[in-house]
């Protein structure tokens, strides 16, 4: 008996869709409304393999059709929708095949959704701890909805990795790992689009082939993580269901963000309270003796008695200490507001280190060693700020080292950086504290406020200044054995260094000859310092290395002695060559000392200067570098 002509109209009223396939899985007939009911577009000649996802469910369906037996199960479409499929074999007109009855799977139970959302809201109201909020959320989802497992993954503090914070159950062997690769779909799409995405669970035991939803946890300003919801095998997600879970995820994301903000606020309050305690103690430490010293001096002056220099110096030291504390607070405030500016210029690292260490060597009875390369290591930086960093590192090394223990400072270079190392043999820093020492107000656990003063700002400020220079400040330490701080700064390129003007110091008792030498050298691009007082000239030139000194041989013995004495005591990273100007070498000069005629003639003076600089360049450079041509200033 043939079916009535209006059978298609009747089929359109049913939620199930009808399909006829052959043993080769090719579609022989498909009802007109099949795509609207199932979301799968099929037409005669297509195969089921084009419409369904590979997996165990498709394998079972394929075997049933080929073996001509009844079957009932679920399949996953290419659009990641789960459908229920019933197979009815048939042998019409001797042709093997099967009828498939297909219906969508999934529920829209708003009562269950509402209950789950209410429980999540109640958990949020009871606690603002991240772990407790996440745990309550996944338990509520499993208890109230048709969900097999729920998990919450949150971004770590560095916003780079996702870590599992809560899971509804950990029984069995099909539990995913605590961390996963968010670059894979559908996680990547969910995080990028801030919209829920469906995926197929693979490789997790009996649940292989089931569908899960990756729902982003979207707070108002950022995405804080992912909510993963796993269905029982055979069940799927409806559109309405995903909308409800997105709403629940947004509520959870806001709770997580609020919990983190509360934790940060509580941490900030603890830091503030600790800082106020330390600051009050540190500020009172210099103020108390300063007040007593000034009171004592006031009484002596009122009584007409002399005030000793020692009392004045003690008060000055306390003022300097107080000023240092205030400067640290001001620098920390400027860094916080982004108002700390740099005044950068070319800077030779070895000379800076030599000068700073020289101040410490005179101030403290402690051995300091300095090791710098023979040739200059140049960076572009703010001299005052980098000196501040070095002073802080040396002060810490001195403060936390036993009396008499040596402190070593080394200057070197890496592939692209100038490196300064400050090594001490002091108390060291515990391993757990080493990642935190550059934070504001932080002090290591083995540092007591009673024995070691300070606000805990020095390393924070130093680290920030180095970062502003594009460099890095690192630490290597072992408790009880000392610490080594490594400061890396971007080096100037060889081309940039060659373009820097050479610095020449001209010392001549005759002002006319001195002016003539200055004109000649400046015309050739040299930077020239001239003054008849050798001590004054050398002090003016200490901030940057002097490449050459032109010294008149006709100067008086007293003037030469004054110059040599000052030259010997001023800090410098490496010896400075001298070009003697006169008719003959004086008695105090070395036999191989270079000599040029005087009165100065431009060609003879320039020839002598270039000869000395070339000799010095070849002496200091490595064999490979010495092959480079010497470029004189333009």
UniProtKB/TrEMBL annotation:
Q: Which residues form the Response regulatory domain?
A: 503-613
Q: What is its EC number?
A: 2.7.13.3
Reactions this protein catalyses = ATP + protein L-histidine = ADP + protein N-phospho-L-histidine
Task: Name any one GO molecular function.
Answer: phosphorelay sensor kinase activity
Q: What class of enzyme is it?
A: transferase
Q: Which SMART domains match?
A: GAF, HATPase_c, HisKA
PANTHER family, per database record: HYBRID SIGNAL TRANSDUCTION HISTIDINE KINASE C, TWO-COMPONENT HISTIDINE KINASE
Q: What is this protein called?
A: histidine kinase
Species whose genome carries this gene = Corallococcus carmarthensis
